[in-house]
Amino acid sequence: MHTLSPHVSRPVSRRMALGLGLTLVLAQGSRALAQGDADAPYDALLRRYVKPGADGVTRVNYAGWRANAADRAALDAYLAELAQRRPSAMARGEALAYWGNLYNAVTLKVVIDRYPVASIRDIKSDSWLDPKAFAGPWRQPRVTVEGRKLSLDDIEHAIMRPTFKDPRIHYVVNCASYGCPNLLNRAWRAATLEADMDAAARAFINHPRGVTVLPTGGLRVSSIYKWFIEDFGGNDAGLLAHFNRFAGPALKQQLAASPQIVADAYDWSLNRISPGS
After folding, report:
1. 229 exposed, middle or buried (CB, 10 Å; 0-12, 13-18, 19+)?
2. Which pLDDT belongs to residue 50?
3. In sequence order, which residues have a C-beta less than 8 Å from that of residue 8 and are 6 or more positions away?
4. pTM confidence score
5. Burial status of residue 93 (CB atoms within 10 A of its CB: 0-12, 13-18, 19 or more)
6. What residues pair up with 263 in beta bridges, in sequence order?
7. What's the rounded Cα separation, in Å, for the pair 86 and 89?
């Protein structure tokens, strides 16, 4: 049995305890910082290659990224690091940000690996048994997380949409197309997730890709809202309520005057930066 030396006074013991406590706090903080810094390489890549345009559309320099072997390797390393994380142990906001970053990083890799292409739909999934495989790259397993092989469709439709049940997920994931909500030029993070999702929703809804008031009356909306109408209340009334939530003053006034949805559209052309621009 060990006993304290009679020469060690009680104040010294308290100082030792305080020192140990401070060491523990600093260690916990370092672990948290390290986890937060894990997305920093992805931030750097996005800042380098994802550029907001004057027309309100964010585009990607796929040609430049493909030409840079070090940055292609950095994206591969980031995806490998993401695959080692445990989203099942994360809080809701952290998990949603994680899945959004994973989806977008995988999509970027798919396009960069096959660039040049005119549309992501030119890249097919490798499955002769799946008739939907020919629609694009979304059905092929591309990453393994917690022992589960996942395709892009799995991430979005089997995990994100049913788990989080938030229509703003459609502004988080990016399918490398002009018609899609903008790709964020930094990683999604739990600390700013709510504000960033709201900002992404406002940016898309107030852009003609999201909602357009036609000269003849009525609204033309992104096909996203029709394809996934169940995520927006299941009917046009739910869509209009969603639009009004994020509409700016001008669009809100137009929505009041032309509240009927009469058409939808989507542009599958690649969200690329044109050469020389």
Report:
1. middle
2. 98
3. none
4. 0.86
5. middle
6. 220
7. 6
Where do the structural domains in the chain lie, given as residue ranges?
A: 37-190
- pLDDT for 53 equals 95
Residue by residue, what is the 3-state secondary structure of the chain?
CCCCCCCCCHHHHHHHHHHHHHHHHHHHHHHHHHHHHCCHHHHHHHHHHEEECCCCCEEECHHHHHHCHHHHHHHHHHHHHHHCCCHHHCCHHHHHHHHHHHHHHHHHHHHHHHCCCCEHHHCCCCCCCCHHHHHCCCCCCCEEECCEEECHHHHHHHHHHHHHCCHHHHHCCCCCECCCCCCCCCCCCHHHHHHHHHHHHHHHHCCCCCEEECCCCCEEEEHHHHHCHHHHCCCHHHHHHHHHHHCCHHHHHHHHHCCCEEEEECCCEECECCCCC
What's at 154, amino acid-wise?
A: D
Cis before 116? omega within 30: yes
pLDDT at 36: 52
- Judge whether residue 24 has pLDDT over 50: no
Specify whether the CB–CB gap between 18 and 25 falls below 8 A.
Answer: no
